[in-house]
Write a structure and sequence with these properties.
29% strand, 6 helices, alpha+beta, 191 residues, 30% helix, globular, three-stranded antiparallel beta sheet, 8 strands
């Protein structure tokens, strides 16, 4: 599976991508927002990830810039099955590319590819203290379910509150319920 967006080329990771992958994702600020990535993240972790088998209906792609010079690895995006067999969207973006809309662009492309293969009912989650990820999810048409669950973060080595999202319109819901939870939680931590 390959996809082209206005600024990105999304393709499967190849073993020769391992050094770039290890370098791009090894930032502790990225790893703390992922559930399954080990920290620290080394070349052998990237090689192990790139060699994992996966369902061909579920995109697991690296995102490369395709503008201004040679392509650069900016992140990754996938649809994987959670512990209950539900398709779940995941993504990460290297810190130099935060705030540029690459996560939104990649996630839209990956969702489109998954839908073309008949994958429905995709969900997503983000750690409570990562509201930027919630912004991405809302931009691509996901809505906050009102549920919070604990998920384990390998980088943090602890359980972390996570907000659960699903595809669909908000239909009169508060425009930003995740931000209300984030604000309330951070105020409680400060008190």
């Amino acid at each position: 599976m390959f996809a082209r967006t206005p600024r990105l080329l999304l393709r499967p990771g190849w073993m020769e991508d391992a050094p770039a992958l290890a370098h791009a994702i090894s930032d502790p600020a990225i790893l703390r927002n992922l559930t399954h990535a080990p920290a620290p993240y080394a070349l052998d972790d990237a090689q192990a990830f790139l060699s994992l088998p996966h369902d061909s209906r579920l995109p697991r792609l690296l995102a490369f810039t395709r503008t201004r010079g040679a392509p650069r690895l900016v992140g990754g995006c996938d649809i994987h099955l959670d512990a209950h067999g539900t398709p779940e969207l995941g993504y990460w973006i290297a810190r130099p590319y935060w705030g540029l809309g690459f996560a939104t662009e990649a996630a839209r492309a990956v969702l489109s590819m998954a839908r073309a293969h008949g994958v429905q009912g995709v969900r997503a989650a983000h750690f409570l203290d990562n509201p930027a990820s919630g912004n991405v999810l809302r931009k691509i048409g996901f809505r906050f379910t009102g549920r919070v669950e604990q998920r384990y973060s390998l980088a943090r080595q602890t359980m972390v509150d996570s907000l659960l999202f699903e595809e669909g319109e908000t239909h009169g819901m508060h425009p930003d319920p995740a931000m209300d939870l984030y604000r309330d939680a951070t105020q409680a931590m400060a008190a």
